[in-house]
Design a protein that fits this description.
By secondary structure, the protein is α/β, with parallel strands linked by helices. The chain folds into two domains: 173 residues, 3-Layer(aba) Sandwich (Rossmann fold), CATH 3.40.50; 160 residues, Dihydrodipicolinate Reductase, domain 2 (2-Layer Sandwich). The chain is built from ten helices and 19 strands. The strands form four sheets. Strands 16-15-14-13-7-12-11-8-17 form a nine-stranded mixed β-sheet. A six-stranded parallel β-sheet has the order 3-2-1-4-5-6, sandwiched between helices. A hairpin with a 6-residue loop joins strand 15 and strand 16. Helix 4 runs parallel beside helix 5, helix 5 runs antiparallel to helix 10 and helix 8 packs across helix 10. The radius of gyration is 20 Å and the shape is globular.
Length: 394
């Protein structure tokens, strides 16, 4: 049960836009984590976050590496820094959980996995929305056979990603294109629901050169081009036999539009936005109306820790860190491990390669994500409920 395992002393490296939700949750939501330090390239930003959330220390990378009490490091740096930071922490004997994507290069991801294995260390990789109420409920429906065998699926996400890159300049850098920034949530959800991918065919197009539109942003360059493919249309063949059409378009207009449907031999489901924890699942069976299925799991993203904040929409990020901490204490594999991170990244790079060559890309990696225990909820009558965290314990 929660509270019966020694806490895992943890440090967060990287205090950018996603860090607030991680820091709050790791400090106050998960009893297995003892968040003791923050680190950022610009020390002042780490000091601000430490003061805001009551974190006792601000440390350098060197100080974290040298501290024998810190067991786990959460790497929230931009994707281009993931490899360097994760490798440095592994070499210092720390377990590491990294924000998505694992690295910007598949060979580097494999190198880190080998390094962790050789030293008996744990690796974890986001997205951890796949452990949230929405995706876990969809998985429960599939596992109980309500829609039979899944034969196909359709996933799509569109938005004005070029305009978004003005508000969030990190999108102008490596892995900032829509498939790597947002599409990875859909990739992760598909893996969690259908298992590993076998092969890929694809078409792709780059982002156009984008002219600055938001005049109130003074330090934005006059124009830029997001690197990589910002539009992909792909076909994924899963080892289960399911065929899924995938459409990611960042070269269009408007807010994010999401579609995620799986078609089975006995019915179909519509899965909510996999970028959040509370995406509602709708079930359609023959001779019945479409119904919204109740959540079978906790961690639906509801803020039970404080008054509403600007980052509440990011929900329960950090659940993957907590599950990994329990895995460490129990001596078992964590669910969102290096195999998951590598498989997600290889799917994205495989799409790029298939589009560039016009040939089928055959996957080399594989992974398996075990579902969480159902019936353990995170809220009841609007307040915290104690048994949600027990779902992370095997």
């Amino acid at each position: 049960m929660p509270g019966s395992y020694p806490k895992v002393k943890t440090a967060v490296v990287g205090c950018g836009s996603i860090s607030s939700i991680y820091i709050r949750n790791l400090k106050s939501l998960f009893t297995i984590i003892d968040l003791v330090a923050l680190c950022n390239r610009t020390r002042e930003k780490a000091e601000e976050k430490a003061a805001q959330f009551g974190i006792p220390k601000v440390m350098t990378l060197e100080e974290i590496a040298a501290d024998p009490e810190i067991e786990l490091v959460v790497n929230l740096t931009p994707p281009g820094s993931h490899y360097e930071v994760t490798k440095r922490m592994l070499e210092a004997g720390k377990h590491v959980y990294s924000e998505k994507v694992f690295t910007t290069d598949l060979s580097q991801a494999r190198e880190l996995a080998d390094l962790a294995k050789s030293r008996g260390l744990y690796l974890g990789v986001a997205p951890d929305t796949v452990l949230g109420a929405g995706i876990q409920t969809a998985r429960r429906i599939l596992d109980t056979g309500l829609i039979g065998n899944v034969s196909s699926g359709l996933v799509s996400v569109t938005r004005s990603h070029n305009l978004m890159s003005e508000l969030f300049p990190f999108l102008q850098g490596q892995c900032g294109c829509l498939p790597y920034d947002v599409g990875v949530y859909y990739v992760g959800a598909l893996i969690a629901l259908l298992g590993p991918v076998k092969s890929i065919r694809a078409f792709a197009a780059p982002a156009p050169v984008h002219e600055k539109q938001l005049l109130f942003l003074e330090h934005t360059p006059a124009s830029w081009q997001i690197p990589g493919n910002n539009l992909v249309c792909a076909g994924l063949e899963f080892k289960s036999g399911a065929l899924v059409s995938m459409h990611f378009n960042g070269n269009t207009v408007g807010d994010e539009q999401s579609r995620f449907e799986l078609y089975g031999s006995l019915g179909m489901i519509k899965v909510g936005d996999p970028n959040v924890f509370n995406g509602r699942v709708k079930l359609l069976l023959p001779e019945s109306q479409e119904v919204e299925f109740p959540f079978t799991h906790g961690y639906d993203g509801t803020n039970t820790l404080s008054a509403p904040t600007s980052f509440d929409g990011s929900g329960h990020r950090g659940i993957g860190v907590a599950e990994m901490a329990y895995a460490l204490r129990q001596g078992r594999p964590n669910r969102l491990n290096q195999d998951y991170g590598i498989h997600c990244l290889e799917i994205l790079t495989g799409i790029d390669e298939a589009a560039a060559t016009g040939s089928t890309y055959e996957m080399k990696s594989t992974c398996h994500i075990r579902p969480l225990t159902p019936g353990r909820y995170s809220t009841v009558w609007g307040s915290a409920r104690a048994d949600a965290e027990s779902a992370l314990i095997d």
